[in-house]
Specification:
The protein is mainly β. It has 2 domains: 136 residues, Cupredoxins -  blue copper proteins (Immunoglobulin-like, Sandwich), CATH 2.60.40.420; 92 residues, Sandwich (Immunoglobulin-like), CATH 2.60.40.420. The strands form 4 sheets. A 6-stranded mixed sheet has the order 7-6-9-10-4-11, with no helix packed on it. A 5-stranded mixed sheet has the order 3-2-1-5-8. A 5-stranded mixed sheet has the order 14-13-12-16-19, with no helix packed on it. Strand 1 and strand 2 form a beta hairpin. The radius of gyration is 18 Å and the shape is globular.
């Protein structure tokens, strides 16, 4: 059953995102809060660490995080949700009904020496993800394993710093990060995926984006907030279009003009 569009929620989310990314800011890293296709809650970090409800507690560095809440369950078998991230200074709630892709960007400030919980208030049987923050200025570790996207239990111990960054972001050369798969359906619906998953957050770098456009009534346009748009597939074009793009840190969107804008985050 298709989700209802709530205009007020869309506007609120867009204003929040624009306010967060319209100015230069310093982000500790990004967090993806996901309901996976197998109906498991998961928290994904830049370092590759994945934390699930059944995982041992994890420790993150305090700071401001670019955060995406996303559902990867196919819409035809998805349920209604009320995702909730709560803890000192944070009370993020969303039902993801504001957009077709069911992904929302937010910004959260995690306080030092605090405990946070992420759960679905309408589906408590999914369990809760609990994590804490270290003292100010200390590193990030996780006693949960990087699950590799498959298993749902805990795993091996990982002490990977979330704030590590091997990319030369800000230099003239951006690292090649791989391929993005876009599509425009005959109904004019746009999607963008990376390694088979709906895009919520990407690492800065060069990407090859390939768009399969099935209609001459919609385009596929990629744009960073307050920057010039990049047309990957024009409105008149039908077929596959490929382009190499440089994604720099900030808020990005893809859309067909006119049409709904779908936002995602690019982090350093």
């Amino acid at each position: 059953m298709p989700f209802r569009v709530r205009l007020a929620g869309v506007l609120a989310g867009m204003l929040l995102a624009a306010g967060a990314f319209g100015v230069q800011g310093s982000f500790a890293a990004s967090i993806v809060l996901s309901l996976n296709a197998d109906n498991t809650l998961e928290l994904r970090l830049d370092s590759g660490v994945r934390i699930r409800a059944s995982s041992p507690p994890a420790v993150l560095a305090p700071g401001t995080y670019a955060t995406v809440v996303i559902s990867e369950v196919p819409e035809f078998r998805d349920d209604y949700h009320m995702f909730h991230l709560t803890g000192p200074g944070v009370n993020l709630q969303t039902d993801l009904l504001a957009g077709d892709e069911r992904a929302e960007p937010h910004t959260v400030l995690l306080q030092p020496n605090s405990v946070y919980t992420f759960r679905d208030e309408r589906n408590l049987a999914l369990g809760s993800i609990v994590f804490s923050t270290s003292g100010a200025g200390t590193g990030v570790s996780s006693s949960s394993g990087s699950s590799g996207g498959g298993s749902s239990g805990g795993g091996t111990t990982s002490n990977t710093p979330v704030t590590s960054n091997d990319d030369a972001v800000g230099s003239k050369v951006l690292r090649n990060q791989g391929s993005l798969a876009g599509s425009v359906t005959t109904a004019g619906k746009l999607t963008l995926r990376f390694k088979g998953k709906i895009v919520g957050a990407l690492k800065a770098g060069r990407y090859t984006i390939s768009v399969l456009d099935e209609t001459s009534h919609a385009a596929f346009v990629l744009q960073q907030l307050r920057k010039q748009p990049i047309t990957v597939s024009s409105k008149a074009h039908v077929g596959r279009s490929t382009k190499t793009v440089k994604l720099t840190p900030g808020q990005w969107m893809f859309y067909s003009s006119p049409g709904k804008k779908t936002f995602f985050i690019v982090h350093s």
